[in-house]
Write a structure and sequence with these properties.
heterodimer, A: 296 residues, mainly alpha, MetI-like fold, 12 helices, flat, B: 224 residues, 10 helices, 0% strand
Chain lengths: 296, 224
């Protein structure tokens, strides 16, 4: 698309681009200068604020890695519970019976319209009041519950879109073979839909990983973000350094997941082409419309 | 069942008003910032393209909570940035708008980029054939069509933004989620009522947005 918007630059355009580049560099430089001088002013640039992350392995083994482990644990539990639940809800929404379709649809729309944070806080209060879950584990339970409720309803929409994107002939052929509705769904539609929606599911994992940080900020869940307090308390108020490192860990983790999703999508496209099924395109988050709301 | 609301102890409408304000200011800010980012990402200047791509990929992969909390701990408490706010609440609100704008701008950028991709190449080629410059091609021909095609993804971003304003509770902006936290602690016996009220409030905020913008998307779609 880029090349369509402008002509191949001639001598004057190239000169103009150089001018723009210099102006943009100056603007960036000013911002960088302001940030760095503000940091230097508050003594945030000092080497001892940053060096622990490179020289002292204890920062990693005591704080960052255990925090990352908690983040991954919550994310993994959430996706593992949300997947079957979401699949069930998605299939329920496709049901032929109105008394199944309508209530399931209402549940899915309800949990999609509510912020995850509210679900987490509500779950935390419910666990505190009605269950004997000890207060050590309550934040993890609350975070996973909130994430499962929200993401199951998002996954339900992904599953529904995945099944609906299959050619009609697939279901018709299964019926012609004498399969029951359940068999059609289980043996014919769902296996194909899963491969179509795999990239969208991996993208959803990025959302889950990002949302675990909510528990750290507001529910006292000991995940990666919440480690900044201990680090800044023990390594001399190196707030900026701690946040930079924590953000970088998240960025690397999520970039890996995004990369995986893109690779899966490419492979699926190629596989599809080889199988000559042309009208099945992988369901990406962008095409999903509604489900994309969860991606933000 | 609702008697604890009559005590005057909780400013429910006030809290949702703050939520709505957060969403509105951040929406305007992220629309402007996202448009600037997408202009950079498709521009002929390689440095701007690189900056736009790097910014989007870095910020999009950072949790919003990290962005907002870093605004408070890093910008405000460490670097003493107040954005002109006077008290704790005011500063929290302004920092939350800043964080939400910085984060949501990347999603606006991606939505607009997908919108630009729906504009047929012939449109831009015709504009160039008329001798238009890059800025003219973008602002007069491509972006107006891209915005109309991007209404649906932008509506989803706006709905997500409305829900994301709850993250501002982490830095003390007095919006709905913070009030809910307080009410859950004080009115434990009415837990389900409290949750129901706040859930209803957010449905009221997000549902019309989806419906109105869905209607607008159909209405304004570029007929091809």
């Amino acid at each position: 698309m880029n090349s369509v918007l402008y002509d191949v630059p001639g001598p004057r355009a190239r000169q103009r681009n150089v001018v723009y580049t210099i102006l943009f560099l100056v603007a960036l430089g000013l911002v960088a200068y302001w940030v760095l001088s503000a940091m230097a002013d508050k003594n945030q640039l000092a080497a001892e604020k940053w060096s622990p992350f490179v020289t002292d392995s204890q920062v990693w083994t005591t704080y960052l890695l255990p925090g990352l482990a908690e983040t991954l644990k919550a994310a993994a539990l959430s996706i593992l519970i949300a997947l079957p639940l979401g699949a069930a809800l998605g299939i329920g929404r496709l049901s032929d019976h109105r008394w199944v379709r309508v209530p399931v649809g209402a549940v899915v729309e309800f949990f999609r319209a509510i912020p995850v944070l509210l679900l987490m806080m509500f779950a935390s209060a419910v666990y505190a009041q009605f269950t004997p879950v000890s207060s050590d584990f309550r934040p993890l339970y609350a975070v996973v519950t909130g994430l499962v409720l929200y993401n199951a309803s998002v996954i339900a929409e992904v599953v529904r879109a995945g099944v609906l994107s299959l050619p009609r002939g697939q279901g018709d052929a299964a019926v012609a073979l004498g399969m029951r509705k359940g068999q059609t769904m289980l043996y014919v539609l769902l296996p194909q839909a899963v491969t179509v929606m795999l990239p969208a599911l991996v993208s959803q994992l990025v959302v889950i990983v990002k949302d675990t940080a909510l528990g750290g900020a507001l529910l006292g869940f000991g995940e990666l973000l919440s480690q900044n307090r201990q680090i800044t308390a023990n390594y001399g108020a190196n707030t900026i350094a701690a946040f930079t490192v924590i953000a970088l860990v998240y960025i690397v983790l999520n970039a890996l997941l995004t990369h995986l999703a893109a690779r899966l999508e490419r492979r699926l496209r190629q596989g599809r082409r080889a199988a000559a099924v042309k009208d099945v395109a992988p369901v990406t988050n962008v095409e999903m419309g509604g489900a994309n709301a969860g991606g933000v | 069942m609702f008697d604890f609301l009559d005590s005057g102890q909780y400013d429910l409408l006030g809290a949702f008003w703050v939520t709505a304000q957060l969403a509105l200011y951040s929406a305007i800010g992220s629309l402007v910032w996202g448009t600037a980012l997408v202009a950079m990402r498709v521009s002929p200047v390689p440095l701007m393209r690189g900056f736009g791509t790097a910014y989007v990929n870095l910020v999009r992969n950072t949790p919003l909570t990290v962005v907002v909390v870093a605004c408070s701990f890093g910008l405000n408490q460490t670097l003493q940035v107040t954005l002109g706010g006077d008290d704790f609440k005011e500063i929290g609100f302004r920092l939350a708008v800043l964080g939400l704008t910085a984060y949501t701008g990347t999603f606006v950028c991606e939505a607009l980029r997908s919108g630009i991709n729906t504009v047929p190449a012939g449109q831009a080629e015709a504009a160039r054939a008329l001798g238009m410059s890059f800025t003219q091609v973008l602002t007069l021909v491509v972006l107006p069509q891209a915005f109309r095609a991007a209404i649906t993804p932008l509506a989803n971003v706006l709905i997500a933004l409305t829900k994301n304003t709850t993250v501002a509770a982490a830095i003390g902006a007095t919006e709905a989620a913070l009030l809910m936290k307080e009410m859950i602690e004080n009115e434990a016996q009415a837990l389900f009522t409290v949750f129901g009220i706040f859930a209803f409030g957010f449905i009221v905020l997000t549902l019309p947005t989806g419906l109105v913008l869905g209607w607008a998307a159909k209405r304004l779609a570029v007929k091809r």
